[in-house]
Amino acid sequence: MNFLFSNKLKLSECFKRYFVWVEADGLLSKNSVNKYKEVSQRLVILLEDIDVRKIDGHTITNLKQQLNNKQLSASRKNHHLVVLKNLLKYLAEEE
User: Fold this and answer.
1) Which top CATH class is 3-94?
2) Res 5: pLDDT
3) What are the tens digits of pLDDT across the range 17-60?
4) Going by C-beta distance under 8 Å and a sequence separation of 6 or more, which residues neighbour residue 95?
5) By the 8 A CB rule, do 50 and 10 touch?
6) How far is it, in rounded angstroms, from Cα 35 to Cα 72?
7) Contact 9, 53 (CB under 8 A)
């Protein structure tokens, strides 16, 4: 596989395209976009900038365990999952 193609599928690169799309379509307020970006940066670290094709049920379970270990509020943990879900939905529908 070509390096540029594989890089395009890294979580961080997918989030970059997602935010361009979200901001272009005005789907979220500026404040919400900033919060999503903050969460997305944490997700990239927690998931080690994984190739998005490798995200599966095991990945999500592992992410939930990591979030639980950080003793975040239920709302904050859910926000991480919502941001990831919205990215994956965007990739499935738009790309």
Assistant:
1) mainly alpha
2) 53
3) 999 999 998 878 999 999 999 999 999 999 999 999 999 999 99
4) 17
5) yes
6) 15
7) yes
H or E, element range at 58: helix 57-69
Domain residue extents for the chain: 3-94
* Angle between the N-to-C axes of helices 11-25 and 30-46, in degrees from 0 to 180, rounded to the nearest 10: 170
Chain mean pLDDT for the chain:
92
Both structure tokens of 25: 């379509």
- Quick one: tokens of 53? 């094709």
DSSP, residue by residue, 2-49: -HHHHHHTBHHHHHHHHHHHHHHHT-S-HHHHHHHHHHHHHHHHHTTT
Alpha-carbon gap, residue 77 to 60, rounded angstroms: 12
